[in-house]
Design a protein that fits this description.
The chain has helices at 60-63, 67-73, 81-101, 109-117, 196-212, 226-234, 247-256, 264-273, 280-286, 304-311, 330-337, 364-374, and strands at 2-9, 18-23, 26-32, 52-54, 76-79, 119-121, 127-130, 133-139, 147-152, 156-159, 181-185, 217-220, 241-244, 274-276, 291-294, 318-321, 339-342, 345-348, 352-355, 378-382, 398-400, 408-411. The chain is an alpha/beta fold. The strands form four sheets. Strands 6-5-4-3-2-1-22 form a seven-stranded mixed β-sheet. A seven-stranded mixed β-sheet has the order 7-8-9-10-11-20-21, with helices on one face.
């Protein structure tokens, strides 16, 4: 069976993922995300009617624009129940930010409500029949609930979404699947992660050093996945630790769906070792503690800015960055220039600043290894600004580097 694929976003860049699949008498949409820049960047408009939609996971660059399709077209949305619930949190938060910042609002609260009514919740290894195509979900190892979608017709086509092949404390890594066509993310094209244990040891040593000198450690974290991974790493340190922001709600959702996390007992233990911040009174207590784990991960919003107002001028304190810092974000400015935009004014930060690689994406060599284990005929590399760096390692495969709005066909 022939199928036509077209990327509406996320082909040659990290962010705003969106891809249509046309064949077997229907049009399907893989993801519809937003790049959470200032202002947000959206994928190209969806051309016409969508019959079915698939969501790999709940990060905004994959789920952020879903209500603009599902809510307005009333099409089914296939995803895990955990990804659906966290995406709902993210969508409402996006609406709130758009209103607060004066950005265009691409969908309404009613669109979100309609989207949630059209969710078809699926567990890993569940298979659904859509005409002549069988669709199976597999774990992507990226964050809890994150899925790869396998489409089987005459042959097998695997769409990975974001993947990590290495086991994390929160989730086990993705496992390869034999397939003819492999659509795979290439976020870390040309870059490998340092050995994980080295990163963890350096991170904990830095925390000990900062606290020994009388400083406070601020760890800005993404709410989905990174907050919980860091809590698991720190749970046995014995310090006075606080957690703030949407990460608290996401942790509770993870515990509501223990089948999607590696060790629910361990995450519950981590949750107990952190004081949860729910109001300004507890925020005042937190800045007299030792460690604060808080959203937002790129320092562009969320409670982290409240803490930086109080803590930024003390060189004994440290800001430990544990996630990707996109261009034009406070986090990137802090890394490159030692300052941030706070309340419309660029201010110097006296704290120590250090970045640690806790990525939930596979590195270059891990992606190449995954491709070889899947042994496809065709490899489509997406979600990457450095895709061409894979080519020397993939000479045995037909590698496709799709461009936005340039359709191509494959037999599936």
């Amino acid at each position: 069976m022939k199928m036509k694929f077209n990327f509406l976003g996320g082909a040659d860049m990290v962010g705003r993922m969106a891809m249509t699949m046309e064949g077997d008498g229907k049009t399907m949409l893989m993801e519809y995300g937003v790049s959470p820049t200032k202002p947000p960047e959206y994928p190209l408009p969806v051309p016409g009617k969508i019959d079915h939609m698939f969501l790999t996971h709940s990060h905004l660059d994959h789920c952020g624009m879903v209500p603009a399709v599902c809510g307005k077209q009333n099409c089914e949305l296939f995803t895990t129940p955990l990804s659906a619930e966290i995406s709902e949190l993210m969508m409402y938060d996006s609406l709130k930010i758009a209103k607060a910042e004066g950005y265009p609002i691409p969908y309404t609260q009613q669109d979100i409500e309609r989207t949630m009514k059209h969710v078809v919740p699926l567990a890993f290894e569940d298979t659904i029949e859509l005409g002549n195509i069988d669709v199976t979900l597999h774990s992507a190892g990226h964050v809890p609930g994150a899925s790869m979608f396998e489409f089987k017709a005459d042959s097998s086509t695997l769409y990975t979404g974001d993947i990590h092949t290495e086991d994390q404390k929160l989730v086990l890594g993705a496992r390869s699947r034999d397939c003819k066509n492999l659509f795979i993310e290439g976020t870390y094209g040309g870059r490998n992660h340092p050995p994980k244990e080295d990163t963890i040891n350096a991170f904990i040593a830095k925390i000990d050093e900062v606290i020994d000198r009388g400083g406070i450690v601020i760890i800005p974290c993404f709410a989905v996945g990174r907050t919980q991974e860091i809590m698991l790493l720190l749970k046995n340190l014995g310090y006075e630790m606080w957690v703030d922001g949407m990460g608290r709600s996401v942790t509770n959702l993870f515990l509501d769906y223990p089948e999607y996390i590696r060790n629910a007992k361990s995450l519950k233990a981590a949750k107990r070792t952190f004081n949860e911040i729910r109001n300004n009174a507890s925020r005042k207590k937190a800045v007299e503690g030792q460690i604060i784990v808080t959203t937002g991960g790129m320092l562009d919003g969320g409670p982290v800015l409240t803490y930086l107002r109080t803590l930024k001028d003390n060189p004994k304190n440290a800001i430990l960055l544990v996630g990707y810092q996109a261009e034009d974000t406070n986090g990137r400015m802090l890394m490159e220039q030692g300052c941030i935009n706070l309340d419309g004014e660029v201010v110097k930060v006296a704290c120590e600043v250090q970045k640690f690689d806790f990525s939930a994406h596979a590195g270059h060599d891990q992606i190449v290894q995954f491709i070889r284990e899947c042994d496809p005929e065709n490899v489509v590399i997406m979600h990457s600004e450095t895709r061409e760096l894979f080519l020397p390692d993939l000479e045995d495969y037909n590698v496709i580097l799709p461009e936005p709005n340039v359709p191509f066909e494959l037999d599936i």
